[in-house]
Design a protein that fits this description.
3 helices, six-stranded parallel sheet, alpha/beta, eight-stranded mixed sheet, about 210 residues, 24 strands
């Protein structure tokens, strides 16, 4: 089983490590900073996006190692149009309910939890120790940062970003492309495209 990761970043390193622990035999990185960038920790960088597109048949799966939600969405769309086999990477120490669903190209890291009837879209990052409770709906290309918690029935819009250690109260919605700051406590719905911070979370004026 041979995996290609587009994006030789720190986030990509965590994906590669999770993939190896999940049984992938080899990992090869591609990044648009190549050929200046030839290594990502212990893993080799073998080309840029164009090179990966020309070598899709060499890999059993492809995943995006880019933390920026918008760029990750763009790159995944490009790969999908080219016929890439977009796979999800789930660390063996994650707890994923068999009654939940994880979309193509998503990554779920160690000690995270996805509980029953949660729906995680495509290209989502469920980062280390994050919790997605029952009946949540997580939009495509969202990012739930380390130790963040979505309580039951939360709806998270596409490309939303929940900061580390933030929490969202049950049955609320966080709009598309919104940002919930680190450690924020969300107690009411968040509109699309805004940043909220604090406890209780309020729209940032900065």
């Amino acid at each position: 089983m041979h995996l290609a990761i587009l994006g030789a970043s720190g986030h990509g390193k965590v994906i590669a490590d999770a993939a190896e622990q999940a049984g992938w035999q080899s990992v090869t990185f591609f990044d648009d900073a190549w050929p200046e960038l030839e290594e990502n920790g212990p893993w080799a960088v073998k080309g840029d996006t164009r090179a990966l597109l020309s070598r899709l048949a060499d890999f059993d799966g492809v995943v995006i190692g880019i933390g920026n939600n918008r760029i990750r969405a763009d790159k995944q769309s490009e790969l999908a149009r080219a016929g890439a086999n977009l796979v999800s990477i789930i660390h063996p120490a994650a707890i994923i309910s068999p009654r939940s669903s994880i979309g193509a190209g998503s990554v779920v890291f160690a000690n995270s939890v996805v509980n029953p009837c949660a729906v995680v879209g495509a290209g989502v990052i469920v980062n280390t120790g994050a919790v997605v409770e029952h009946d949540c709906v997580v939009g495509d290309f969202a990012h739930i940062s380390p130790n963040a918690v979505l309580a039951g029935g939360v709806t998270l819009g596409q490309q939303a970003w929940i900061g580390a250690c933030a929490s969202v109260r049950q049955l609320l919605s966080v709009g598309r492309a919104s940002v919930v700051g680190m450690g924020a406590v969300v107690t009411k719905d968040v509109e699309a495209g805004v940043t909220v911070v604090g406890n209780p979370a309020r729209v940032s004026t900065r």
